[in-house]
Amino acid sequence: MAVFLTVALMTMACPLLAFDMGQSTRCVAIPHKMHVCKDVGYSEMRLPNFLGHSSLEGEVVPHSEDWRPLLQTGCHPQAQAFLCSLIAPVCLDTFIQPCRSLCVAVRESCAPVLACQGHPWPDVLDCDRFPAEEDMCLSHHGKPGIFSKGLPKSACQNCPYVEEAPESKTILDSFCRHDFAVTAKLHRLRLPTGEPEFEIEGRVEFIRQGPLLPYDTQHLLQQWLLINVRCARALVRPGRSQLYVLTGSVQHDGTLSLTRVFPWHRKDANIAVAFRKWKHHRC
């Protein structure tokens, strides 16, 4: 992700400032392989776009892919609409930019994710450059969805402590000290681009459920891997799957924090012992 975003931020350094609202544009169909703006709600876009890209195959499509890792983190529910309004602006009788309020909302949620990867919010997306709400622009919908309200969420954090071959007492103490404990198999593969991808393989099994929800936990951990990609790289080698015991807590602001990680190898009998003892263990 770091390589992709570096390229994306460099290529986005200046074009928006130079975009001329009076220049001649044309309408083209959004190509099917432009996955970032798939199902965005319209089928035609303007060229050149608001980033100054005039070549669909040479600029728009490849540069749109630069933003896919950020969008996959789910950093804001309208991040796709915001970015696609610049990458693939809707083809109407007038130019529709994102409103300043939408930019601010997306920046507040997504800038910490960029910072987690070592990147600042790009100058070209300075929210003061976008029109105010009273102008014709793509607005921000402020109300959270009913299903996301109050759910734990993933965030950038310091990498959790990884302990190899722990004693069963250490594992039981970790179960007691933290809000939740789960087992999950983390998988890392390499895409054709060379950028690693992380995923939760199979089901997440609860040891101690705490505030986590069964239908949300796998997605929650997946988002944690995508946001904390440097931690994920340290945990899992390319092309490998590894089973882990993960313990952590949900903070007062609703963010999930992984605290202790125990790789579960076949030879680690102590983890199996801790599992059996936990059923009757008193903290």
From TrEMBL:
Species for this entry: Oreochromis niloticus
Principal subcellular localisation of the protein: secreted
GO-annotated cellular components: extracellular space
NTR domain location: 159-283
Keyword line: Developmental protein, Differentiation, Disulfide bond, Secreted, Signal, Wnt signaling pathway
Any Pfam family hit: Fz
Location(s) in or outside the cell: Secreted
Signal sequence, start to end: 1-18
The protein's name in its UniProt record: Sizzled
Sequence similarity: Belongs to the secreted frizzled-related protein (sFRP) family.
Name of encoding gene: szl
Domain FZ: 22-140
Disulfide linkage: C103-C127
GO MF, one annotated term: Wnt-protein binding
The UniProt record lists the keyword Secreted: yes
GO terms, biological process: canonical Wnt signaling pathway; cell differentiation; determination of dorsal identity; developmental pigmentation; negative regulation of BMP signaling pathway; non-canonical Wnt signaling pathway; protein stabilization
